[in-house]
Amino acid sequence: MDQYNRIISEIEPSRSVTLMAKAKEMQKSDPSVINLSGGEPDFATPEKICQEVAKALREGDTHYSDFRGNADLRKRISEKLLEDNGIACTADDILITPGGKYAVYLTVRALINPGDEAIWLTPGWVSYPSIVQASGGMPVAVHLDHKDAYRVHREQLEAAASDRTKLLILNSPNNPTGKVFSKEDLAEIKAFLLAHPDVYVLSDEIYESIVYESYQAESLAADPELADRVIVVNGFSKSSAMTGWRIGYLMCKSKAMTVIQKLFQHTLSCVSGFLQRGALVALDCREETEEMRKAYSRRRELLLRELSDVPGLHLFTPEGAFYAWIRFDVEEDSAAFAERLLDEAKIAGVPGDAYGEEGGTFVRFSFAASDKVLLELTKRLRRFMTAQEND
Ligand SMILES: Cc1ncc(COP(=O)(O)O)c(C=O)c1O
Q1: Which of 90, 164, 214, 337 is most buried as measured by Cβ atoms within 10 A of its Cβ?
Q2: What is the atom index within ligand 1 of the atom nearest the CA of 247?
Q3: DSSP-assigned beta bridge partners for residue 326
Q4: Which of 127, 171, 275 to mutate to test ligand 1, by most ligand atoms within 8 A of the CB atom?
Q5: So what's the pLDDT on residue 390?
Q6: How far away, in angstroms, is 169 Cα from ligand 1 center?
Q7: Spans of the chain below 50 pLDDT
Q8: Count of CB atoms situated within 10 Å of the CB of 72
Q9: Residue nearest to atom 14 of ligand 1 (CA)
Q10: What pLDDT, on a 0 to 100 scale, did the predictor assign at position 389?
Q11: Which domains can be identified in the chain, with CATH numbers?
C-alpha cells in the first residue's frame, strides 16, 4: 500500500514558491542578492483597509461568517464585476475564498473527474497543471509561440481537445508573459467554445486592474453567449497589495456553484469575517490601486528603456501584470541559465520551463520592486550578457 496519496506525492513543488524561499535564504548571508522571483506587490496594503480590519477585530468580528462570504461584500463584488468588467451577476453567484489560488483549486476540483482533461495555455501559471493533476485530471498544454506574440488560434485549441475535455483555463493579463488577450484572441477562443458546448472556462483575472497603455482586460463572462459556463477568479492580492491576507473570490453562474460550495463548506467553512471587512474597503480604494498601477507602468518604461540594447536579451513588452518576461540568446536551458544568473550575477528569477515555455531560454523577473533595485538588475544583466558575448 502506498504510504501517501499517490497523485499528490507525484506533483512537482511550486517552482516560484521554492525559488523565492531559496533566494530569501541566500539574501540572509549575501544582501547583494536581488530577489525578483516572487509575484507580489512591493507596496503596503492601503492604510484604510488595515484600519477597518483593526476596527472589525475590536468590535469582535471574530466568529464564523456566512460560508459564502459576507452579504455586503458579495453584493459589492457583483456591482464591481458589472461596472468594471461588464459581467451581469448577483451576490448569490459570488463565493469569497482564501485567495485566488484556492478559488482555482475549488473550481478545478468541482469540475474534473478522474481522467478528464483541462486545457491550459503556455506559458502559463505554474499552479494550473498541478491543481489539475491533484484533482485526478490531465492537464493538456497548448503552446503559444513568442514569435507569434503569444496569439491564440482556434486550430491549436481544436488540436488539444478530446471527448474528455472538461475545462479551458485562461489567464489575462498573463503570468508570466504580461500578455493581455486581444479581441482577435477572444474571438478565436469563443469560436472554439461555441463548437464545444460542454467545456467550462476558468477565467483567472487576478491581474485585471494592472494594464498598460491602451490594453484592456476583457472577460469572456461578459459575453451573454458564454456567461453561464465561465467561472471568474479574482482577488485582492495584486490589485490592493494584499498577498499575505489570503482573500479572493470566484463568480459562477452555473450549477457548478453548488458543487464548489459543498467542497468549500467541508474544507474551509468560511473566510475570516474581519478580513472580509478589509476587502470591502479595498473595493473602494480605486485611487490607491491606480497609484500602484502607475508606479508599475513607470518601472515597465524603465526596463523597456534600459534593456532595449543589451546584447542577447529580448524583453517581451508587458501589456499587463508586473513581470518582465525575457528571452536570452544562450545555449543552456532556462533552469540551468536561471541557476547561473543566481550564482554569478546574484539575480533570482523564475526559469521559463516552470511555465511550460518551450520556445527558448526565458526567465521571469518581477518588476514589483523599487527603481533602485530595477536599475541594478538592468546593470547586472548588461554586464552578464556583455561578458557572454565576449566569451
Ligand atoms: C495567475 C495567477 N493566478 C492566481 C494567483 C493567486 O493569487 P492569490 O492566491 O494570492 O489571490 C496568482 C498569484 O501569484 C497568479 O499569478
Answers
A1: 337
A2: 11
A3: 315, 363
A4: 127
A5: 76
A6: 13
A7: none
A8: 12
A9: 39
A10: 77
A11: 6-45+287-390 (3.90.1150.10), 47-284 (3.40.640.10)
